[in-house]
Specification:
CATH topology of the largest domain: Beta-Lactamase
CATH class of the largest domain: Alpha Beta
CATH superfamily of the largest domain: Transcription factor LuxR-like, autoinducer-binding domain
Distance between the termini: 51 Å
Number of helices: 15
Radius of gyration: 22 Å
Structural class: alpha+beta
Strand content: 15-25%
Shape: globular
Strand order of the largest sheet: 2-1-5-4-3
């Protein structure tokens, strides 16, 4: 088994060549995975590690047709194997048949979404590396096919951490090249949507952002981008729970040119009884991107705070005062940051954040 597993891991590594994008890697992996674990359809989603919201998905057509239903049962209804539960569970991979002990009718998601679409069992994987989740993979079997076996679940469990590393390594922002004549990033966009995610109104910039997001996922102009849907369902779920204020309805999405968009959704209250959602779309700034870089490089929250201060031009003494720790502790944090980022000085660190990750002071 060890020899077979090593062979599969080598193939996973080969699929993610140095120049492959996350989207290319996921498409190739789904194709390869079918030869190891037979299935009818798949959905392979990258997620924001801080909010666990979609940053883009690779899906089959039959899954795209029920995607909104899957979102609803992920965020708005109780069911088995919610992804946020898998992320925090010892077992990161689970089957619906296993969770229901073979009685699929126990699952509302199965009864109302999967079964009407001709689907049967599903296997879900939370792709976690070093405590941070970088994606979700779901594979589906159709009616008439057997349940996923425990051996298949264990195989995917063995492969999942390595898949997570490949996604993490492709999540880092990279310096983008400005081409003469290239359109500048749009101004902040604003969308107003109904509870059923029908677009009620929008500004001109929002239409530009929608086009960029659709292009990033290969969607047509009539399709609502999946990350946008995800933040909306999160906002709806927070309102159902009576959350007064939350920033978790937020995700950062890589566009085709390597830049990042920041998407936020919030529930609107007003005199009429109609549910409305406001969505803002804008270029991701330093505050948005620094946590993603930190998570990808394995930096701690305190190291993240130190880098934020460095980008603001604070001295060691000023950093120590602002964080209520000693200058010696700041120096210890800097040493750790230098090791993790592969630099030897503050100057090199700032240069790398700006040139390699397109991050500049806010």
């Amino acid at each position: 088994m060890d020899t077979q597993l090593n062979s599969l891991l080598n193939k996973i590594t080969a699929l993610g060549g140095a120049l492959s994008t996350s989207q290319t890697y996921r498409s190739r992996l789904i194709k390869q995975l079918r030869s190891w674990i037979p299935f009818k359809s798949a959905c392979f989603t990258t997620v924001d590690p801080r909010t666990l919201l979609s940053t883009g998905a690779i899906t089959d057509e039959d899954i795209e047709a029920i995607h909104d239903g899957l979102f609803k049962y992920e965020y708005l209804h109780s069911d088995y194997n919610h992804f946020h539960e898998l992320v925090n569970s010892m077992e990161k991979v689970a089957t619906l048949s296993g969770a229901t002990n073979g009685t699929m009718s126990k699952s509302p998601r199965y009864l109302n979404v999967l079964k009407p679409a001709g689907l049967h069992d599903e296997m879900r994987a939370a792709l976690v590396a070093n405590g941070m989740c970088w994606g979700f993979l779901t594979i589906f079997r159709q009616e008439g096919q057997p349940f996923f076996s425990e051996e298949e679940r264990q195989l995917l469990s063995s492969l999942a951490p390595f898949m997570a590393v490949m996604l993490r390594d492709r999540s880092l922002p990279r310096s983008t090249v400005t081409v003469d004549g290239m359109d500048p990033m749009p101004e902040p966009g604003l969308l107003l949507l109904s509870e059923t995610l029908d677009i009620l109104s929008y500004n001109a910039a929002a239409r530009q952002w929608m086009s960029l997001l659709q292009d990033a996922e290969g969607l047509d102009a009539a399709s609502l981008p999946r990350p946008l849907r995800a933040v909306c369902f999160r906002a709806l779920s927070e309102n159902d729970r009576g959350t007064v204020y939350s920033t978790s309805a937020h995700t950062r999405v890589r566009l085709r040119d390597g830049s990042f968009a920041s998407i936020r959704a919030s529930f609107l209250h007003g005199p009429d009884a109609l549910t409305k959602l406001a969505v803002t779309l804008e270029p991701a700034n330093t505050t948005d991107m620094l946590p993603l870089i930190s998570d990808s490089l394995g930096l701690t929250e305190r190291e993240n705070e130190v880098i934020s201060g460095i980008l603001r031009g604070l001295s060691t003494k000023e950093l120590a005062q602002s964080l209520f720790i000693s200058p010696y502790t700041i120096q210890d944090h800097l040493k750790s940051i230098f090791i993790k980022t592969g630099v030897n000085s503050r100057r090199e660190l700032i240069w790398q954040l700006h040139s390699k990750y397109s991050l500049s002071p806010s």
